[in-house]
Amino acid sequence: MKELEDNSVHLVVTSPPYFNAPFDYPGLFKTYKDFLTMMKGVAKELRRVMAQGRICCFVVDDMLVNGDKFPVVADVTKTMMRAGFRYRDKIIWIKPKGYVRISRRSGVILQHPYPMYFYPDNLQESILIFQKGKFDYSYLKQVSPEILEASRIDSKEFNSLGIALTVWDDSSGERNAVPDTWQITNVLPMKGRLEEGVAAFPDEIPRRLIKLFTFVGENVLDPFAGSGTTLKVAKDLRRNSFGYEIDVELRSIIAEKLGYNQTGLSDDKVEFVERPDAEHLRTKLQKIVRQKESVAT
Ligand SMILES: C[S@@+](CC[C@H](N)C(=O)[O-])C[C@H]1O[C@@H](n2cnc3c(N)ncnc32)[C@H](O)[C@@H]1O
């Protein structure tokens, strides 16, 4: 991320390519070690570009590839800690009730109701939260009153999401909130949607994280920009953003998401820089996915 200055980024919200995910990134990495080596490089660069005390959020999940489970969540945690970040928190993102896995592994126990046939489907992902050192809260005194007010967290909104302070409600006998469990609808796999073949996360994930961890006007980075969800939400919330995406074929999708081609009243500036090391990935990956699908049907 040579274009970025040291200590210039206030928040990272990202989701690295799901290691060789059969329906999104089949064979993208030769080995799991290659994936981890790439993550090590990213972690090192993030340590350099992050401002002191600030937060990096990774949306990740362990991956099942050809029957073997790869411990991505644990390994990304270790990689970031080795690069010098503090491991601050983990939030579990629970997919909604209507979401089912294509594989339906959990159905095996119904066909074979005997011990050793239980294979749970995973209907969650982890949002890992890392921090570069500690945040100096006297920073708030340097922020102008207008920016501070514009960045104020709407506690009613976060209360209604069920992720604010947990208290026990004696009358209902229930907790009012589970702050580290976020119920968010995933991007639905509709044919022809903008994010097709990208494994995009829903706007709601960066929306919450950007509000919770940045002030208006600060810099948000997504080193694996995909369709540009983080960049778009940052723009909506009046934060600056930087994104890196290796696949030049996603450029028009990112442009569309950011409203780059629309002429309007907005004075937002969007700049694309195409590097010589850009790749053409989607056509290649989608061809492999289609071949897999035709074998499966
Ligand atoms: C899971 S997707 C991110 C999706 C994104 N959060 C969104 O909502 O659209 C990961 C992205 O990382 C990109 N990628 C893979 N290797 C990369 C690399 N070395 N540098 C930058 N981007 C990379 C992939 O092409 C893919 O678009």
Question: What profile does the largest beta sheet have?
Answer: 7 strands, mixed
Helix proportion range: 25-40%
Order of adjacent strands in the largest pleated sheet: 9-5-6-2-1-10-11
Order of helices and strands: EHEEEHEHEHHHEEEHEHEHH
CATH architectural grouping: 3-Layer(aba) Sandwich
**The CATH homology group name:** Vaccinia Virus protein VP39
Averaged pLDDT: 89
Number of domains: 1
Q: Spans of 5+ residues with little confidence (pLDDT < 50)?
A: none
The CATH topology name reads Rossmann fold
Tally of alpha and pi helices:
10
Gross geometry: globular
Tell me the name of the CATH class.
Answer: Alpha Beta
Distance between the termini: 42 Å
Explain how this protein is built:
- With 297 residues, this protein is of the alpha/beta class.
- Helix content is 30%, strand content 19%.
- The strands form three sheets. Strands 9-5-6-2-1-10-11 form a seven-stranded mixed β-sheet, sandwiched between helices. Strands 3-4 form a two-stranded antiparallel sheet. Strands 7-8 form a two-stranded antiparallel sheet.
- It is globular.
- 27% of the residues are buried.
- The site of S-adenosylmethionine has 19 residues, from loops.
